[in-house]
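STRUCTURE:
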């Protein structure tokens, strides 16, 4: 018997009611993503890429249709259950970092672990390993405002990965990195995917898209391929 997909969307739509009539950010999205996929979502600005990613990441509840994630009927879950599902299973890399300004690099990395049953000692060990693997040990006590844009993005990537999510969502993950750093992040994503992490990235970069196993294209809020 074939296993059910990790993600299944059926007739998902996101509509903004405007004075001149409704604007469809997403229209009739039907999509299945299997566990272990590495999917790149491409399309022009305003095509609905980020809207789709925020629905998949459970950051947006204002949409219609059916969304199944890990066997859960997301469209029927209340806010708390969605939050629990998100914190347990999803890592998110934002284009604009979304680091907490009043926390140090170390504290920003520790937060996702605090949502799981990880002891303080284990958290310390995991954070130190992550700082080491991203060559950021010397930055552990700095605040985001003391880092360059590229360094903040690396912290954002490290934070998304630290709790080993089963699903990693990335919105233009290399947008603020120079090309060498960008390739390093994409190689890391490829390795994680080969180890079993399902990845969905929004990208304008054909080079980044080629690290994936599938490319989806959006235009005017609709899946065109």
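SEQUENCE:
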């Amino acid at each position: 018997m074939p296993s059910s997909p990790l993600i299944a969307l059926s007739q998902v739509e996101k509509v903004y009611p405007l004075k001149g009539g409704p604007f469809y950010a997403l229209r009739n999205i039907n999509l299945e993503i299997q566990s272990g996929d590495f999917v790149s979502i491409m399309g022009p600005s305003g095509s609905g890429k980020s809207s789709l990613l925020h629905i998949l990441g459970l950051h947006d509840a204002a949409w219609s249709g059916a969304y199944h994630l890990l066997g859960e009927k997301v469209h029927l879950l209340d806010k708390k259950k969605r939050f629990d599902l998100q914190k347990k299973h999803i890592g998110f890399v934002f284009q604009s970092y979304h680091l907490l300004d009043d926390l140090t690099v170390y504290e920003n990395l520790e937060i996702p672990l605090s949502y799981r049953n990880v002891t303080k000692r284990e958290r310390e060990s995991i954070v130190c390993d992550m700082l080491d693997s991203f060559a950021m040990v010397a930055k552990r006590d700095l605040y985001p405002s003391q880092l360059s844009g590229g360094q903040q993005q690396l912290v954002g990537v490290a934070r998304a990965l630290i709790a080993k999510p089963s699903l990693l969502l990335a919105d233009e993950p290399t947008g603020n990195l120079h090309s060498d750093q960008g390739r390093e992040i994409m190689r890391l994503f490829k390795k994680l995917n080969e180890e079993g992490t399902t990845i969905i990235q929004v990208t304008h970069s054909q080079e980044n898209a080629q690290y994936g196993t599938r490319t989806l294209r959006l235009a005017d809020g609709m899946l065109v391929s």
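REMARK: The two ends are 27 Å apart (CA to CA).
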